[in-house]
């Protein structure tokens, strides 16, 4: 397994390149900004980028996903339910994408947005059990993703509650690699530490540890952070349905 994390400050976000060094196969998840660093790391580690995945249609920035996929010859992956103005590889819940000895299993985890997915990653040379989960803006260190981008804040919170229940079923040792950290507009009490584990978040993430649905909804719709600037335009541009904001 080769794993590289890219931390961004404008916008505050985290991207990942990972895969199987032995089979020279990798994926990039939630790329932001200049695509050159991802291409350099892939070249330095001797890996081909087979998939570029966006965990959801982002609202806080313009995704670099399609540009990176085009430059690397990779397939661009989104959840199958996305309405987009360009071709992409539609991933559905339970799909397994192969990267040599590494696999990523798609988990549909809506709530932050309806099409949001997480990726459960296993290195079969180490164990048959998953090693880490890329959670995008569903589960972050210290909090969960904002919900007002769904049909309504309450509907989004109830959908997110079901997604959280799925993530809680993962083994406690599974590492959590989120798509954002402290300073992001996509969450409230986010930690500056950009990684965690399912077990730690069960104990110390106030929203993640709530087991009662009504209490969860009340927590998630209280004090929702203001939406990102140009949120609607960014989402439309990232879906290929409008031009990017200047």
UniProtKB/TrEMBL annotation:
<dbReference type="InterPro" id="IPR051682">
    <property type="entry name" value="Mito_Persulfide_Diox"/>
</dbReference>
<feature type="domain" description="Metallo-beta-lactamase">
    <location>
        <begin position="12"/>
        <end position="180"/>
    </location>
</feature>
<dbReference type="Pfam" id="PF00753">
    <property type="entry name" value="Lactamase_B"/>
</dbReference>
<dbReference type="InterPro" id="IPR044528">
    <property type="entry name" value="POD-like_MBL-fold"/>
</dbReference>
<dbReference type="InterPro" id="IPR001279">
    <property type="entry name" value="Metallo-B-lactamas"/>
</dbReference>
<protein>
    <submittedName>
        <fullName>MBL fold metallo-hydrolase</fullName>
    </submittedName>
</protein>
<keyword id="KW-0479">Metal-binding</keyword>
<dbReference type="InterPro" id="IPR036866">
    <property type="entry name" value="RibonucZ/Hydroxyglut_hydro"/>
</dbReference>
